[in-house]
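Re: [ENG-882] Designed sequences occasionally contain unexpected residues at chain ends

Forwarding the minimal case from QA. Structure tokens:
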């Protein structure tokens, strides 16, 4: 009888352990980001992926009772990677646009955004039109709404597209391009807080055309993952309400990027 009881205990323990393992596995979410877009997402010297996007994503996982694995993916392949099941959601400062909504679903915006022109300090540019900028070399990161904007707005300019934002910045600082268009907050950070960005300054009015900046910045999920979408939205509302979002925001920005105020 004791042997049977002991065996029953072992089997029960084994079953419980297996169930816990399966539960833990089910509660692990994979977060995809770019890792090349400071201060929103970047790779630190020790190889860790950090930034505003990443901290928000990890906090959302925590609120959903899930562990989170973070991986970096080149921007051009970030949506294909989601569709290929390399990760469960993308949090990488992605504008919510109609074109993207055809292939992925987005959460509610987790921050607002505008784009901006960046020029060399002292550049005498007062009009941002195709005619006035037709002889200029203009850069942006490929596969982005910034690239869409310069191709649509300045078709006669010499347009150069780059795999990463860092490469755009490098060519801007080195004088190989005359102007770039980028997201306002990273460009403000680059021009005011980095040595190489000291070459340049923001110019013109913020670019807020919904055709290019969309409905804000959202987290992308596969269209079939409706429960995950609902859970992410609920977690986002929760961290906004209890002040956690603000605490993360204030580590990186002097304004509330959720409202741009």
């Amino acid at each position: 009888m004791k042997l049977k009881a002991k065996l029953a205990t072992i089997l029960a323990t084994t079953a419980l352990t297996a169930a816990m393992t399966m539960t833990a596995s089910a509660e692990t979410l994979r977060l995809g980001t770019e890792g090349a877009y400071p201060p929103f997402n970047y790779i630190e010297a020790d190889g860790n992926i950090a930034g505003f996007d990443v901290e928000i994503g990890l906090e959302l996982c925590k609120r959903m009772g899930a562990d989170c694995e973070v991986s970096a993916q080149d921007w051009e392949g970030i949506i294909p990677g989601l569709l290929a099941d390399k990760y469960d959601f993308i949090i990488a400062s992605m504008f919510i646009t109609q074109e993207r909504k055809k292939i992925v679903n987005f959460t509610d915006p987790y921050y607002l955004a505008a784009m901006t022109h960046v020029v060399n300090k002292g550049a005498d540019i007062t009009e941002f039109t195709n005619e006035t900028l037709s002889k200029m070399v203009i850069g942006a990161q490929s596969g982005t709404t910034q690239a869409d904007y310069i191709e649509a707005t300045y078709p006669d300019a010499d347009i150069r597209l780059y795999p990463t934002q860092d490469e755009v910045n490098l060519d801007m600082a080195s004088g190989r391009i005359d102007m770039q268009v980028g997201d306002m907050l990273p460009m403000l950070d680059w021009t005011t807080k980095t040595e190489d960005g000291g070459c340049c300054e923001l110019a013109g009015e913020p670019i807020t055309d919904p055709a290019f900046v969309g409905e804000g910045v959202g987290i992308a999920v596969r269209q079939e993952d409706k429960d995950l979408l609902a859970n992410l939205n609920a977690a986002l509302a929760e961290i906004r309400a209890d002040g956690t979002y603000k605490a993360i925001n204030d580590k990186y920005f002097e304004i509330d990027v959720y409202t741009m105020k």
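QA comment: On inspection the terminal residues look reasonable. The two ends are 72 Å apart (CA to CA). Proposing we downgrade this to a documentation issue.
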